[in-house]
Design a protein that fits this description.
- The protein is an alpha/beta fold.
- It is built from 11 helices and 7 strands.
- α7 links the parallel β4 and β5 (169-180).
- It is globular and about 50 Å long.
- 40% of the residues are buried.
């Protein structure tokens, strides 16, 4: 269980600047919205500019390290949702037997395939706009580990997506990954002082809108959904391992499907 205070109880005039104006913009993407179109077309560039510096790398790596700790991928069937640049490969223990990637962006999938090819790992990818709305063609109880780094906060149909994850995992299989402490005070202030400044200087994008659509789920929403899906979950927070999102930046998770 993770408790979110800032995003739930701060006055709207403050929370709208830290977590997006959710009252005004809601949670559902409007595809022809100009802010969304600019964001969608520039997202790989924006990620590179805002998430791969010293701060972004340190924060993201903390989630990778914690989630992958004591987890062997050796000779396992792995599925990753939203692989991105797969910066977590350096923290792997063992070599997967097969690796399947699922994402809505073909560029990221092809980038991941090249990385896995170089490592000599059999792989394939599935182009899927929304895992919660479009089930994937993976057999029931055929996957050892599902990886989801900084993905679950994005999924509007989160319960349905987790049902799909639960379906494909073997009994005793694991869902592992990490999420930002979205809705927490530390995360909101950090974004306000860093990413927001970059957006204002380098784009015409209304970040109050994009945050709502990109991160519809607060950290407690994700943790509650993991419980509803039927997993036995262990949540670890960073840098302070306390169950209060306002004092953390990252929550990593180990979620086991009961046998």
């Amino acid at each position: 269980m993770v408790l979110v205070l800032g995003g739930r109880y701060l006055p709207h005039v403050v929370s709208s600047k830290l977590y997006g104006d959710r009252k005004k913009h809601g949670y559902t993407v409007i595809p022809n919205d100009p802010d969304w179109q600019e964001w969608d077309s520039r997202m790989p560039e924006i990620f590179e500019k805002t998430q791969t510096g010293i701060v972004g790398t340190t924060v993201n790596s903390a989630g990778y390290k914690q989630a992958l700790r004591h987890i062997s991928l050796d000779r396992k069937m792995i599925v990753e949702i939203g692989p991105g640049a797969m910066e977590h490969v350096k923290y792997w223990d063992g070599t997967p037997a097969k690796y399947i990637m699922i994402d809505r962006r073909e560029a990221f999938l092809k980038q991941g395939a090249k990385k896995l090819d170089r490592l000599g790992i059999a792989n394939e990818f599935i182009l899927s706009e929304d895992l919660g709305r479009h089930p994937v063609e993976i057999k029931n109880e055929s996957v050892d580990i599902v990886i989801a780094f900084y993905v679950l906060e994005h999924l509007l149909e989160l319960d349905e997506a987790l049902k799909e994850v639960f379906r494909i995992l073997k009994p005793g299989g694991m869902l592992i990954g990490a999420i930002p402490a979205e809705g927490g005070l530390a995360w909101g202030l950090g974004r306000f002082l860093t990413t927001r400044r970059w957006f204002k200087k380098n784009t015409n994008i209304d970040l109050d809108k994009i945050i709502c659509w990109e991160h519809p789920n607060f950290a407690d929403d994700v943790c509650n959904a993991l419980d509803r899906a039927g997993f036995n979950s262990k949540i670890v927070s960073w840098p302070l391992n306390v169950p209060i999102a306002d004092l953390s930046l990252i929550h990593s998770f180990h979620c086991e499907k009961p046998c």
